Amino acid sequence: MKYLDKQDMDKLAIGAALLGTGGGGDPYVGKLMAQQSIDKYGPVQMITIDELATDATVATFAMVGAPTVLVEKIPNFESFDILYDEFVKYNGDKIDAVMPIEAGGVNSMIPIIFAAIKGVPLVDADGMGRAFPEMQMDTFNVNGIHNTPAVFADEKGNTAILNTSDGLWTEKIARSLTTVMGGSILNGVYLLSRQELHDYAIHHTVSTSIAIGETLMTSKQPIEDLQVLLGGTILFRGKIQDVARRTDGGFVKGTATLTGLDADKDATCKIEFQNENLVCLVDDVPRCTTPDLITVLDLETGMPITTEGLKFGARCVVFAQPADDKWKTEAGIRTVGPGYFGYDYDYIPLEKTVKG
Of 12, 124, 220, 261, which has the fewest beta carbons less than 10 angstroms from its beta carbon? Predict the structure, then answer.
């Protein structure tokens, strides 16, 4: 058990942005929201899955929509209360703890705000171990746990309840709701048992994010230390030559093109993203694909750069790390592999492409 304070939010924002693979919402906005809630309500208790009571139930809360919209449309605390109350109303009257559904700048922070406001613990886990762009893309759905009744709320006091036939339908309808409700809204989608978390969650995501943040804030050789901490690898060093992005159907989609530096000076790298980085190609050859993690880091500081922060001329490192083994199943690859996003090549684990 640990209590999270405002200083932990600085570290968590950085680490979650790295694990968020470019998506999950702006880490600075998420950090400010979480720090404000801790200022008002006090530190948040963080517990492991093993510290939950055997009959505990855990709710997941997040934001859904285009990350670029969140920067201009920040939710107020009243909307958190409204969503929580609606979620309890439709899912039962017992929430013992809350948890992130994904690791990402703002979406690692949203449950902390709920935990502070409602005085419940935060569980050190999530449902992705990274961020993904669609709502059905979590390890609970992959293992047959349905994500409705799902509850949504905007900053104007509007709410919506979804009951769907499967997770993909939740995503499709929620995406339409998001567009109508302003492009970025709060949501609650699961009420999970301790056993379900034990079996299907990605454990220790929050504490790992904090460790990443601390490393980047204190290390004199941050990228090298990240490789040790996360078992990651450098795919490319380069300078951003072009970024083409657009908001389409509630997503920020696009391509970043990098020209090489140092040992990569004669090569070109392309990163395809849909809110999150999905594919890294070097000289048109896939070097890493979803579900493995692709993160763009500042060449000097090692700080993660989100997809909305990619800018012409930035000198970067493309950093990759293996996904959790829970994704490396047939159902996992079918749900979040490159084929789902329309790419015509198979998923090859990062460990094999690096050796190759």
Answer: 220
Look-up: residue for tokens 């009243």? Answer: 78
Enter the tokens of residue 126: 């999530």
Question: Which residues, listed in sequence order, are joined to residue 244 by a DSSP beta bridge?
Answer: 255
For residue 27, whether the previous peptide bond is cis, meaning omega lies within 30 degrees of 0, is: no
Dist. CA 290–CA 297, nearest whole Å: 18
- Under DSSP, is residue 95 helix (H, G, I), strand (E, B) or coil? coil
Task: Give which of 111, 131, 113 is closest to 123, Cα–Cα.
Answer: 111
Can you give the pTM of this predicted structure? 0.94
User: What is the per-residue pLDDT across 54-109, written as a single tens digit (0 to 9) for each?
Assistant: 999 999 999 987 666 666 677 788 999 999 999 999 988 789 999 999 998 789 99
- Residue 239 token pair: 């300078």
Beta-ladder partners of 246:
253
Q: Which CATH class is domain 221-355?
A: mainly beta
Provide the 3-class DSSP secondary structure of residue 19.
helix
With CA atoms as reference, report the closest residue to 347 among 140, 355, 332, 275. Answer: 332
| Domain segments of the chain as ranges | 2-205, 221-355
Q: How far apart are CA 44 and CA 237, in angstroms?
A: 38
Top-level class of domain 2-205: alpha beta
Q: How far is CA 30 from the centre of its chain?
A: 12
> CB burial class (10 A; 0-12, 13-18, 19+) of residue 144?
exposed
46 beta partners:
2, 122
